[in-house]
Amino acid sequence: MNKFLQMTEPASRVQYARSLSNMSQNAFANECGITQQALSKIELGKTTLPAGGTLKKIAAYTGLSFAWLLEGGPDPFNGSLQTAAREPAAVYELNKEIPELETLISELRLATHSGALPVEALTNFHDLLMMMVTQKKTP
Description:
Blueprint: H1 10-21, H2 25-32, H3 36-43, H4 52-62, H5 66-71, H6 88-97, H7 101-114, H8 119-137
Helix pairs in contact: 2-3
């Protein structure tokens, strides 16, 4: 099962967003432009429906989808695995064989967006993935 679907509450999705940044609550809150107290209440589940403005700030800083932070779903970028590749059907088939692929692509996209990973790394990963798909099609 897609790990993002298991994140049923905003608290777990916001915790995930912060975990990708490897920041303390205080540092992450400062970067997002919210208070540490607001972030703490969200992560502890004390604020079950965070203010839209707060989630928009977190979304803007992390590159995650505002809709995903609010409602959840399979992809924190509010696109599908297919947006990560030029050959969506082939990648979809490969994803059925390697369930972790969608999660990996989402995490690579977030790392690229945050600047922790050069865009070239995502491009290289995509090219490698397409090579695997092409080889798989060859009898």
